[in-house]
Amino acid sequence: MIDYFKKIMDNEAYKRIMSNMLSLFSLQGLTYILPLLTFPYLTRVLGPANYGLIAFATAFIAYFQLFTDYGFNLSATRDISLNREDKRKVSEIFSSVMVTKTLLMILSFIIMAIVVFSFDKFRSNWILYFFTFGLVIGNLLLPFWFFQGMERIKYISILNIGTLLIYTAAIFIFIRHASDYIYVPLINSIGAITIGLIALRIIRKDFGVNFVLPSLKGVKCQMQKGWNLFISTLGISLYTTSNTFILGFFVSSTIVGYYSVAETLMKALQGLISPISQSIYPYFSKLQSENSLRAKSELKKILSIIGVLTLTLAVVLVFCAPLIIKILAGSKYLQSIPLLQVMVFIIFAVGVNNILGVQGLVAFGYEKYFSKIVIFAGMLHLIILISLIFILGSLGAAIAVVTTELIICVLEYIVLRRLKIL
Questions:
Q1: What is the mean pLDDT of the chain?
Q2: Distance from chain centroid for Cα 345
Q3: pLDDT digits over 154-190, tens only?
Q4: SS3 232
Q5: Does the pTM of the predicted model rise above 0.90?
Q6: Which residues of 101-127 are buried (b: 16+ CB within 10 A; e: fewer)?
Q7: 369-374 contacts: CB < 8 A, separation 24 or more?
Q8: Does position 277 have pLDDT exceeding 70, yes or no?
């Protein structure tokens, strides 16, 4: 492994990857730091029960955000990228996607309202869900897919940080008591909508994109392009955003609060490995098309390195979990410690999954296998999740997530072996 690191330092391609990775780490640093400033404050001021209510509402509304996003974050990005030199075509694509997403958002709002006013569990806190739905509107107004397609990532970083700055300042100003929990999603939504409106102005002013009324054919075309990607994303959501939501039907909001604290910290830690994926993927996509044998060899080496590093990190975090919870969440959340000690192994599983799935199956052109594995795992996860929640409560939910991620690892490894990539 030492020799491999020496080789990296002498290889121009790897130097470029490391440079991109460091840039992404620096750009995302503030994205992770700002939420951690409000996290200890909110957990202490709101308490586990109210924090759990917000987490449940956010998980519920995440389904409508997923539905409104459809598969456009990938399909529309590709369309914009391929046509970015043609302003007229870019305007047509942008208008078609925005109109389609708006229609999906309106349908989402109607469904959300029906659900909220039809069930006591939702009706008792109906205003919380309506405030949280503002995140769907903000996400609609902030077209990340457009900036990605135009390869202007800096806009995404600046706008994302802008949203977080508004949210962070407002939380410390307006949230003073436990009863103020209702305003947390409202503040988040206002921040997202404000930045979204600024983004639309930038797109019109800096990129010269004008709105044109799309044809029905154009809307149908965008729906068709995003369908397969939407199904894959839906499969992934079954073992990510579904956990807090489903758990909320079986346990109290206080228990959901304990679980959400552990999950929030785990996701922050997990986010540290995302720049690795973003930096390596373009390299592997190009390498496999130029030299398949070398790409296979490099995949094995990087899999070993990422596997060892993420597993070591997970084991270290098991012992650090009590200290992390006490410092960041407070003494009221000691029940979150065993949950975090289980969840940290998601870092290992996701790290390996990324190499096997994205750098392996997707980069080598086997997206269909990747989608099938994800969808199967998502459906299987629901069975495992509900079964373990009945037996172990919130700890069962944590175990279910890790189990599903490991199953995905095994399935991807088996497929890659059969395809003779590994």
A1: 84
A2: 17
A3: 777 777 777 788 888 899 999 999 999 999 999 999 9
A4: helix
A5: no
A6: beebbeebbeebeebbeeeeebeebee
A7: 369/415, 369/419, 370/232, 370/412, 371/228, 371/231, 371/232, 371/235, 373/408, 373/411, 373/412, 373/415, 374/232, 374/235, 374/236, 374/408
A8: no
Residue 209 falls in which region: left (phi positive, over 0), alpha (psi -120 to 50) or beta: beta
Count of alpha carbons within 13 angstroms of residue 38, beta-carbon side: 23
Instruction: Reply yes or no on whether the pLDDT at 321 is more than 60.
Output: yes
231 Cβ contact list (under 8 Å, min separation 6) = 71, 371, 375
Hey, what are 404's tokens?
């599903």
Structure tokens at 104: 């999906």
Q: How far apart are CA 177 and CA 52, in angstroms?
A: 16
Backbone phi, psi, residue 365, to 5°: 90, 20
Rounded Cα distance, 248 and 244, in Å: 6
Give the pair of three-digit tokens for residue 128: 């919380």
